Amino acid sequence: MGDFSLDTALALIGIAVPVGAFLWEFVFVGRRRLGYRVQMDTPVTGEIESVYPGVLRNLRPDAGDSGPELRDLSVVLVRIENSGNTAIAASDYLAPTARIGLHLHFPRRRVLGMAVTELSDPDLAESLGATSGIAVREDTGGHIGVIDLPKVPLTRKHHYKILAILQQSEAGGTEEERKPVLRGEIRGGRVVATRSQTGISRVMLVLTTFLVLVIIGQFVVAALQPPTPLDCAAGKLTLVGSSAFEPVVRDAAAQYEKRCAGAEFAFDLQGTERGLDRLAEAGPTGELVAFSDGVKGPGYPALQPRPLAVSLFAVFVHKGLGITDLTAAQIKDIYQGKITNWRQVGGPDLPVVLIDRAPGSGTRVIFENALLGGEQPARPHRSCTAIKDTAGTYCDVPVTKDMHKAVDDLPGAIGYGEFSEARKAEMRVVTVGGVAPGRQAAIDRSYPFWGIEYAYANGDLPGGSLAASFLHYLTANVGAEVLRAHGNEPCASALIEPGRCAPTS
C-alpha cells in the first residue's frame, strides 16, 4: 500500500461511512450564531465487554504496560451548526491562532480518538481534512480532553459532527460538570448550546457501534507507534528580572516540571534592572535567564534578547475616588504634575498621590513610552510607607505587589502595572479614553498601554540546556497557552504583525 498507512485507511473509513447520514434539525433563526448540541454522551464499556469479554482491559500496546487501560469509556457525539440566519466565514472566528477557531472541551475525560461523522455539504471536507489543524490534546491541568477544531465556513443550516471516544481521567464530578463544552468567539455573534429536536435513531446507533470499533482501531495503531517526546532538558535554572511577569514565569515553570523530569527552577524576580544586572555580572552561563518588561538599555551589550509576547498593562486608582476613565492626555498631565487634584478630572476634591515604579523598572519604562511620551519629571526617592500619614503626593515602589498595596493604602493614589495581576489584586482599573484593557485591544493597538516582554541570556545558550528548552517551551504549545492565560499574546502568534516584537536597541 506504499505510504497509505492503516491509520489513514481507518480515518477515511470513519469519515466515508457516516457522511451520508443526517438528522433533520430545528433551526433557531437569530443573529450570527454558532450552535452546538451534545446528541449523545453514553458509556460503552459494558456493551463492548458483553460482546468481547476482557478486550478493553487487554487492548494496549505490546511493548510493556505503558499504555492506558481501555476502561471507563464513553462515546460523545456533538453537532456543530450555523444556528443563526447569517453565514459564518473563516474570518469571523475570533481565535488567536491562524487555523484553529474552536475548542471542544471534555472535563474530567481524555480523548482517545475522534472522527468527523457527518458533513451537511461535501465541500466542508476541505476545511476538516488532515492538514486543517484538527487535533486532540489535553489542557495544562491534564484533566480536560480537548479537540481543536479549524475555522470552518458555515452557511445557514450547515453543520458537521464530531464523534469522540473518551476515557475518564479524573473521578468524581456531577453530570453537569462533566458535560462537553464548545469554546470560541464569533465576530458579531456568539457560540451557544442549542437543543436537539430529535432522538437518536437506530441508524445512528449502528453507526456509533461501527465508529467505536474504528476509533479503537485508530487508537491501537497510534499506540503502537513511538511517541513524539517533549523537548525536555534536565538541570537547574534560575529565573530573575521582571516582578510583573513573575506569575507567568512561575506557572510556565510549574507546567514544564510536570512534563520534564529532572528540571528544577529557582526564582528571584525583584525587578527588571536587578535581573539584567545579575545576568550581566554572571557572565556567559546557561543557568540564568532574565525577563524584562520592554527592551534592555545600552548598558548590557552581551545580553541576547528573545521576544516572548505582547504584554498588557493597566492604570489603576484608589477605590474611593470613583474615577473609572482617564484619557491618555490626562494620565500624562497627572504624572507630569500638571493635574494635582482629582476635581480637575471630575473626581473628588482630593490631592493626587502619584505612585511610581523605581527607576530601572521595565514596567516604568513601558508606562513612560506608552502614555507619557517617554518623559517624566525627575523626583527624589520617597518611601510609600513614609508618606502614609503625611501630606506627601509622590512615592515609588520596587516591585508590582508593593504598587498594589500603596494604591490601596493611600487615598487619592494612582499607579500602574501588569493587567492580569491588577485584576487578581482587585485593583480599580480605569479605561484609557474609553477603551478597556484587553488582549485584542492591545493586538489591534486601540488600547495604548502594552509592551513587549523579553527573555535575556548572557551570550548564546547551549542547544541541550534547560534554559534553551524552557525558552522554546514558553513560545510554543502549552507554554504559549500559559502566556495567553495571563492576558499576553505570544510574539509567534499570527495575530501579531511582523516586526512588532523586534528589539529596538
Give the strand tally: 21
For the termini, the CA-CA separation is 56 Å
What's the CATH H-level homologous superfamily of the largest domain? Periplasmic binding protein-like II
Main beta sheet: 10 strands, mixed
Described by the principal axes of the CA atoms, the overall outline is globular
How many helix segments? 13
> What percent strand?
25-35%
**Gyration radius, rounded:** 27 Å
Let me know the average pLDDT.
Answer: 84
InterPro entries: PBP_domain (IPR024370), Phosphate_ABC_transporter (IPR050811)
Domain PBP: 230-476
Keywords: Membrane, Signal, Transmembrane, Transmembrane helix
Transmembrane segments: 6-30, 203-224
Task: Give the SSE layout.
Blueprint lengths: L5 H11 L16 E11 L1 H7 L3 H4 L14 E10 L17 E8 L1 E11 L15 E4 L5 E7 L8 E10 L12 E3 L6 E4 L8 H23 L10 E7 L4 H14 L3 E6 L3 H11 L5 E6 L9 E15 L7 E2 L1 H8 L17 E5 L4 H10 L22 E4 L2 H10 L3 E6 H6 L3 E2 L1 E2 L6 H5 L6 E9 L7 H9 L2 H9 L3 E2 L15
Parallel strand pairs: 1-9, 10-11, 10-12, 14-19, 15-16, 15-17
Antiparallel strand pairs: 1-2, 2-7, 3-6, 3-8, 4-7, 5-6, 12-20, 13-17, 13-18, 13-20, 13-21
Helix pairs in contact: 1-4, 5-13
List keywords for this structure.
505 residues, alpha/beta, D-Maltodextrin-Binding Protein, domain 2, ten-stranded mixed sheet, membrane
Structure report:
With 505 residues, the chain is of the alpha/beta class. The chain folds into two domains: 6-224, no CATH class; 235-505, D-Maltodextrin-Binding Protein, domain 2 (3-Layer(aba) Sandwich), CATH 3.40.190.10. Helix content is 25%, strand content 27%. The protein has 13 helices and 21 strands. The strands form four sheets. Strands 10, 11, 12, 13, 15, 16, 17, 18, 20 and 21 form a ten-stranded mixed beta sheet that branches. A hairpin with a 5-residue loop joins strand 5 (135-138) and strand 6. Helix 1 runs antiparallel to helix 4 and helix 5 packs antiparallel against helix 13 (477-485). It is globular. The termini are far apart. 38% of the residues are buried. Residues 20-30 have low confidence and may be disordered.
